[in-house]
Amino acid sequence: MVKKEEQNDIIQYLLPQLTTIGININQVKVDVTTENTGNKRGDVWVSRLEQKDKKFEENIICLIEAKHKKCNIGDMDWRDAMKQGKEKSIKQNLNYYIVTNCLNEVRYYNSHNDEEITLDGKILTNFVGLDVLIKIQSQVNIDNSDVAHKVNKNVIEFTEAEFRRSLRELEHIYRSAGIKKGDERIDPTVSFVVLKYISEKEAESRTLSRVIQLWDDFSRIVDGTETRDLSSEFITTVSQIWGNDSPHRDNQYKDFKNLVNFPAKLKHNHYSEIYKELNSYHFHGGAKFDLFGTIYEEYATQSKKKEFGEFYTRRHITNMIAKLLLRNERQFRNLKICDPACGTGGFLTEAFKVLNINYTTNNQMNNDVLTQIQNNTFWGYDNDPKSVARTKLNMFLVGDGHNHIYENDSLVGWNNNVKWKEEEFDYILANPPMGSYKGDADVNNYTFTNESRYELLFLEQIIKATKPGGGMAIVINDGSLETPSRVNFRKKILENCNISSVISLTKFAFAPYTKEKTYVLFMQKKQVSDVGNIQDFPIWHYIVDYDGYANSDKRFRTKYHDDLAELESKFDGAMQLINLYSSNKGLYSNSKEHYERKVNDRELEEGLWGYKFRFVEMHEVNEGNFYNLLSEKHLRPYVRKSISIDEFENKIGEIYDELITASPSNNGKKEEIKND
Fold first, then answer.
1. Residue 635 · residue 613 · CB < 8 Å
2. In Å, how far are 10, 14, 69, 98, 512 from 44, measured between CA atoms?
3. CB neighbours (10 Å) of residue 603?
4. For residue 40, what is the DSSP state?
5. Radius of gyration, CA atoms only, the chain
6. CA distance 52 to 57
7. Contact of 393 with 371, CB cutoff 8 Å
8. Between vectors from CA 11 to CA 10 and to CA 16, what angle results, nearest 5°?
9. What is the three-state SS of 545-567?
10. I want to staple 482 with a disulfide (CB 3.0 to 4.6 A). Which of 167, 318, 319, 630 is the partner?
11. Strand-pair category, 28-32 with 42-47
12. What phi and psi values does residue 68 have, to the nearest 5 degrees?
């Protein structure tokens, strides 16, 4: 019965979608085996050639495993389709497969590891034409699930999995050198990456004196052509670039000084082996992930990770936030984008990549545009000099944009020298510190709150630093959004900003560093004439229960649990509908159902309830509930159940009976005990 339902859905829903995107129905075969798959039938095979051609099977470019229209991502039927798709695609020598419920859910998976496939950095959630399918087949492999379509890749990119394998090889080298503690391996690894990067950067345009030997200059020592001590050569290079007495120390890499430190235990042979392991990587623009985070996660102890977590935001979170905030920036214009608590630069690096992709895919990118976003678009501030150095390095690694990263305390007033001033930025995105504030800022100068809390003070400064009409995406904790004593703080936010969306993140989003429950506020600063008036249009809430990684301290990648793709696919439409609210409430009312849903059957089985996402009307956010902005309050409210006295006494009696029966000392004396 189920199989027949799936066949009907393929014919009624799936095949028309393929036709719409230009795939000829004659290039498709349904529910057949191939010579390679034996007795395994593929639901839908797509080929470069038509069915009648004898070489149809040789030119198969895609397998679609189709489930019935009621199937949800991650449920047992979906998992079965993934298992079947992986097995059949591998037999057919395909690097990927597609799973769909024929109606509204589509995902592409890497056959080698079941990773979701992305196209130009975005998870694929719809059917694409034959030209893109061919690119997917040619580019996906065991180490790559990101397909470049409109974006040009000028350097050879590498994946986090590849880099982690190299880190494990380095671990053996460090151990042989007597560097046994994980924390002690962090600094030299970062140091090698920095020097390799500098060599790549200088190869593009030399700024350092030719006297200074760089990474590429050491190749003849490593291959044995020249006989010199490699450890001495590296130390000499470090002293020439950063030494206090060096005539070359005033260079564009001077902020990296505190990041470079080679232990004396490393000798010539260790340097040589590490050089060989890292030499194949191109760090300038080649990493699709955060190198710092990977190095720390691979080597650091738990206490070191906790320390690192104070200034680190996971890149899949920063990438999602940057994509949503900058989704409409497709046509080039002069922008100023800021993170006033930049940490390792996660938000700025992802925003740089998002803008790069947006402009490239919309034919806006040229040398002038690239120069502008490299030199005059991104601004970052942090009061920790090491964080400033990390941010600059990470911006360098993704392709520059490092020019305006400054050591500056964003809470201690304004600083015109580094352009940290009111109404300065088009966009601000940040994950500010949270907790008790004991710094130098005078809390009496703040108007939203009189509490000495980092998150509250930062949020006020961020709002003030944003231009009227500018956008913000701020990570904030639950207490800021619901604590009754902060009702005036939330009212101030609503009087100064329009809140378009609140995204509830899983409490494991930043594990193992912290498991504090956090949210992302997407806001627009009001025009001066609107300040003081609270918006009348609704706020769209979405609860991220799963972000693609295990809800535990381990945070390994999961196959079935990832809400971010759905969030990204719904967000823009929900925001457009909000914009129509005031001018066309009828269209809003008729269309809102597409951007609201209750938890599905799979989510119910996992203990969830209520809504996954919906619009919250402003009459639901009021003084009566202290302007509560918590997503769970509005989407999954706790329902109090009342029972009568008699019901309560009966329940107590049942519990008492169970306890007596279970007691090993009862020995049939239940009634006697009860009468006592």
1. yes
2. 9, 10, 16, 10, 42
3. 21
4. P
5. 29
6. 11
7. no
8. 95
9. CCEEECCCCCCCEEEEEECHHHH
10. 630
11. antiparallel
12. -70, 160
Question: What is the model's pLDDT at position 649?
Answer: 84
Tell me the C-alpha to C-alpha distance, in Å, between residue 551 and each of 179, 320, 541. Answer: 32, 18, 21
pTM: 0.81
Please give the backbone phi and psi of residue 622, each rounded to the nearest 5 degrees, phi first: -150, 180
Per DSSP, what are the bridge partners of residue 511? none
- Write the single-letter amino acid at 257: K
Give first-to-last CA distance, the chain, whole Å: 60
Q: Show the tokens assigned to 540.
A: 């769209």
CA 643 to chain centre: 45
The owner of tokens 């690097």 is 95
**Dist. CA 310–CA 512, nearest whole Å:** 11
CATH top class, domain 2-147: alpha beta
Residues 537 and 166: their CA atoms lie apart, in Å, by 51
Which phi and psi angles does 98 have, rounded to 5°? Answer: -120, 140
CA proximity to 428, closest of 479, 464, 457, 452: 464
The continuous run of DSSP H or E covering 361 comes out as helix 346-361
Token pair of 285 as six digits: 């623009």
Decide if pLDDT at 409 tops 90.
yes
pLDDT in tens, 29-46: 999 999 999 999 999 999
How far is residue 526's CA from residue 499's CA, in Å, rounded to a whole number? 10
- Helix 454-465 with 487-496: angle, nearest 10 deg: 10
Contacts of 315 (CB under 8 A, 6+ apart): 289, 290, 293, 346, 349, 350
Do the beta carbons of residue 596 and residue 619 sit within 8 Å? no
Count the residues in the chain: 676
Residue 189 CB contacts under 8 Å (≥ 6 apart), including other chains: 167, 170, 295, 299
* CATH topology for the 314-635 domain: Rossmann fold (3.40.50)
Contact 535, 491 (CB under 8 A): no
Which residues lie across from 674 on neighbouring strands?
Answer: none
Least confident of 115-124, 267-276, 530-539: 115-124
Q: Where are the domains of the chain?
A: 2-147, 160-297, 314-635, 645-675
Task: Tell me the pLDDT tens digit for each residue of 254-312.
Answer: 888 888 999 999 999 999 999 999 999 988 767 777 788 788 888 877 776 666 555 56
Query: What's the CA gap between 649 and 655, in Å, rounded?
Result: 10
Q: Residues of 330-359 as b/e, b for ≥16 C-beta within 10 angstroms?
A: eebeebbbbbbbbbbbbbbbbbbbbbbbbb
* Cβ proximity of 327 and 386 under 8 Å: no
- Please list, in sequence order, all residues whose beta carbon lies within 8 angstroms of the beta carbon of residue 302, skipping any fewer than 6 positions away: 512
**DSSP per-residue string spanning 582-637:** TT-HHHHHHHGGGG-EE--HHHHHTT--SEEEEEE-GGGSSGGGTT---HHHHHSP
pLDDT at 670: 47
CA 572 from centroid of its chain's CA atoms: 17
Closest to 67 measured CA to CA, from 97, 38, 105: 105
Return the closest-CA partner of residue 375 out of 336, 410, 339, 344. Answer: 336
Q: Which tokens belong to 190?
A: 């970062």
